[in-house]
Amino acid sequence: MARGKLQAFVRRLKDRIALNRRTFILYSILRVLVLLTLIRCIMTQRWEGVAISILVLVLFLVPSIVEDKARIEIPGLFQAIIYTFIFAAEILGEIDHYYVLIPGWDTVLHTLNGFLCAAIGFSLVDLLNRSSKDINLSPLYVTIVAFCFSMTIGVLWEFVEFGFDTFLGMDMQKDTFVTSISSVALDPANAGNRIQIHDIVTTVITTATGDTTTINGYLDIGLIDTMKDLLVNFGGALVFSVIGYRHLKRNESGNWAEGLHVRPVPAEQYQENERRLDEMEAKREDKKR
Predict the structure, then answer these.
(1) What are phi and psi of 263, to 5 degrees?
(2) Of 281, 210, 262, 218, whose CA–CA distance to 72 is shortest?
(3) Percent of the chain at pLDDT exceeding 90
(4) How buried is residue 53: exposed, middle or buried, by Cβ count under 10 Å (0-12/13-18/19+)?
(5) Is pLDDT larger for residue 285 or for residue 53?
């Protein structure tokens, strides 16, 4: 019984996505690719990839769940970017190792993340601003909050990466090879003097068991990657903040920025959407008979 209700709930979510034909086409293509990846991971016994693939299939339904529960409309363009981002980050990035194979893959995704989170923050604050009679926020204030929301999400994600690396021995904060360092920790007198070392060619790492590993240059443990991620997140958030401010200030409509603006669904439209979903379910039941 519970399984049947879950299947019906998932079908309803897919039908909700199908209300926007273009979005549903992209969703269907990416979903097939994820399922193929899932099968490939099962056949090669890559169980971590199996878990990631299942997670992606669930994440693909999250926008539809949010639309249903919050009675809001996430524009097709916004949903398309979300689907593409999830697929690029998890399937291509994690399972197919694009983070390692393609230079700049991580940078592009963190930039897009800053852009998306700013759009989400902008929409959340604007929804609150429009739905409350007691709140009347200026476009500049809405923009600043959206920008800060995006940067906060970026910082929290870096906390997550640091936690996984520290406690699970992963390498989400990718290390960087550098050829020069400057540190007061190298001062033998502990007087706070900076000791600089340039043109580092190799570094020899010796463990307690006597094993040695020689690397080219010096290994930065995630700091450069973290700062780069936050910097490009800043850039993505700034770009959307400027776009969102202009869109709100000028009250523009019909341009592509409106495709990233989440709006509440009027009661009439919500009822019409529910009627269409009921019809899709009824047709499905008729075919079974």
Answers:
(1) -130, 150
(2) 262
(3) 59
(4) buried
(5) 53
Cβ atoms of residues 57 and 34 within 8 Å: yes
* Structure tokens belonging to residue 60: 């693909």
CA atoms within 13 A on the CB side of 72: 21
Record the tokens describing residue 89, joined without a space.
């980050």
- Highest average pLDDT, of 93-107, 124-138, 228-242, comes from 228-242
Say if CB 182 and CB 194 are below 8 A apart: yes
Instruction: Give me 40's structure tokens.
Output: 């490939």
* pTM of this structure: 0.82
Using DSSP bridges, classify how beta strands 176-178 and 263-264 pair: parallel, antiparallel or unpaired.
unpaired
User: Cα–Cα distances in Å, from 241 out to 33, 260, 273?
Assistant: 33, 12, 31
